[in-house]
Amino acid sequence: MGPPGDFTDFVLIKGMGFVRYGVVLTGDQREGADLAKEALSCLEGPKSGNADSFIGTTMTRLYVSSRRRRRPPSIPASDITAHGGDPEVWRQLKELPALPRAVIILRSYGGLSNEEIAKVLDLPLSTVRDQTVPFRQDDLLRTLDAAAATAQPADLLSDLARLRRRRGRRRLRSAAVAGLALVTIAGVAVLVRPTIAAPAAPLSATARPEPSTVGLARAAQEVWPHAVSMLPARSADGLVYQPAVAIDDRRVVLLAQRRLGYDDVRLDVYDAGTGRLTRFAKLPGDDETRRFATDGRFVVWSALSLREDDTLETRFWRVPVKGGRPRLVTKAAQGDALAPSQTHFQLGGGYLLWNTDKAIYRLPLSGRGRREKVREGLRLLEWPWAADLSGRTLTDLETGRSREIVTRERGLARCSPDWCVERNAISGLMTARRTDGSGSVELPGSTTEGPILNRFVVLRLRAGLKVIKDLRAGTLATFDPAEPALATVLGDRTAQGTLLAWSDSAGRDLWVLNLKAVR
């Protein structure tokens, strides 16, 4: 890393990604955060390799090390289910010892080959190959993503300062094993996941991943230049930017916060048409902002807040798209099974909408009125469309009309109003098909998100590389893996993922891909 300011920005921008990986790895909130802090405390001075890879590898080795005192996985299956995971897969993962669990997570969540995992863990290849479990890849990845979504915010910078004052870094650095300075990146760190790449011989700064991976797609800024904008990674007054939500094909809302803590947080708007950044809204209190949504009239976000009795509650705020003072829509205590989800909610028809296990509920955005049940036996897709719990029928909630979803594979992954993503149970190949059964499109890799905006799917390839497929136009795009400066990739804070953003390693510039602007 560079000077202290660069390290601070690095922790702010990427710290929660490491915490999420720690939670996935350990199955425990506190243990996962501690792993991230310990690995970050090992990072100092310039390195010849990639800092993401260094931290991800260090966390994995510290977790597997028999010298480390570990807590048993404590995240309940109900939390995994609430975020779309499979409780049975989670139960089996919780029962695994540290080594096979780490191998499985590196293989699925990290996207590494057995050879790369053997290098990360410094194990014989035969040992790595022996660590297998009978999980479907889609179910496993969905469950691990659900575990990552349960990660709670951590004050990494303050804790790191205390950790470094309390003891030196020599003990941790020995646990990380010599040679981590040579860690190199095999692909691109995408969305919230840190890169975990195998230690290898140093590569040149322009080294490219294998052509079979890179050749599948061109960089997003080449495929959709009108939809990619470059803007400063920090505001004029020094706040760090993170993508929040796309209002439309021109305007993007950015979350801006100080280098320390969650206070003094605001929203700014970037207009791609004018190239101007303007202040949008001041966020209230010390809440930790989680997710955003917009319906073109309002921007709504969820925030986690600590009440006076030291219990947590989720608050939902709204502000008009023209900007102004935020207004409280509703708040709900943690554990309320019928309350809006802090991570999965939508806007439509002037309402805040969300799913429970068996029904769709709504609440007026005005904040006046009680929550009410919209329909039982349905799951909201993209407003106004919902699917029945079997995934075989689509219903328009505004008109009441329904139509059948025509699929050919038994393992239906997910649908939007016009597209379904299917997985062949035998070959494992992914296919996108229109909901009427027409227009089959083969997908190179496994899907991780989508269909987004009833059009895009994010595909996971070997070594963690992700590409974006436009099902409507048939185009494929990725982030340029040949440029080391673009190794930091962030996801937006919306449940639907309408923005993708990445920054250079020095934290000077931020590139934003607005999927609403793709023509």
UniProtKB/TrEMBL annotation:
Database matches in Pfam families: Sigma70_r4_2 (PF08281)
Species the sequence originates in: Nonomuraea recticatena
InterPro entries: 6-blade_b-propeller_TolB-like, RNA_pol_sigma70_r4_t2, RNA_pol_sigma_r3/r4-like, WH-like_DNA-bd_sf
Membrane-crossing residue ranges in chain numbering: 172-192
Domain of life the protein comes from: Bacteria
This protein's name: RNA polymerase sigma factor 70 region 4 type 2 domain-containing protein
Keywords: Membrane, Sigma factor, Transcription, Transcription regulation, Transmembrane, Transmembrane helix
SUPFAM superfamilies cross-referenced by the UniProt entry: Sigma3 and sigma4 domains of RNA polymerase sigma factors (SSF88659), Tricorn protease N-terminal domain (SSF69304)
